[in-house]
Design a protein that fits this description.
Blueprint (H helix, E strand, L loop, with lengths): L21 H30 L1 H26 L7 H9 L8 E8 L2 E8 L1 H9 L3 H21 L4 E6 L11 E6 L5
Helix pairs in contact: 1-2, 2-5
């Protein structure tokens, strides 16, 4: 059977993802990444309506700290990413669902030091457009915990330092910048 570029044809009772072309699978993965992000936003806003911002923020942090460990373990296992240094962390980070939606640059200084610069972030854009100032909490309270959760899942000794975070002076500014270090590279 020819690989599918879409699913506009007949219903296939035994359809498998492997029936799709590589390009279509990439598009599907990008869509799954958007759905992952949308679920996070929808969950947050729903809980905020019921419990208020303070409790929602606490729940969000707790949920992400749990998810970070799971996500890193699954990504490392699936792609056979070995090691517990900065390189292993950056490899797993590159293939995470949320990472597919941002524009960024990773600068590897050595196996124990890297800087991640985010130049486009759909979450930050949405929060800034919302206009409630939630980007300060999400980017400066939740994100550091998320990045530390990802790092700790690879190696609890990895240090995470925020070099730049919102608020931005203009949309042309970078969204955020993070330094990851291990050992004597701190």
């Amino acid at each position: 059977m020819k690989k599918l570029s879409d699913y506009s044809g007949e219903f296939l009772p035994n359809l498998k993802l492997s029936d799709f072309s590589p390009d279509t699978l990439v598009q599907l993965l990008e869509l799954y990444s958007k759905l992952y992000l949308a679920m996070d936003a929808s969950w947050y806003l729903t809980v905020k309506e019921r419990l208020g911002d303070k409790e929602t923020l606490a729940c969000d942090i707790q949920a992400w700290e749990r998810m970070c460990k799971y996500e890193m373990a699954m990504l490392k296992r699936q792609l056979k990413i070995r090691g517990n240094d900065i390189i292993a962390l950056m490899k797993a980070t590159q293939v995470g669902p949320w990472f597919q939606l941002i524009d960024s640059k990773i600068e590897i200084n050595n196996k124990n030091s890297a800087v991640l610069t985010v130049t486009y972030c759909p979450t930050l854009n949405a929060l800034e457009q919302e206009g409630e100032g939630r980007e300060d909490k999400i980017c400066n309270i939740v994100e550091p915990r998320i990045f530390k959760g990802f790092a700790s899942a690879v190696n609890p000794d990895i240090e995470v330092k925020c070099l730049k975070s919102p608020p931005r002076k203009s949309k042309d500014d970078i969204c955020c910048q993070w330094e990851f270090s291990l050992g004597s590279q701190k």
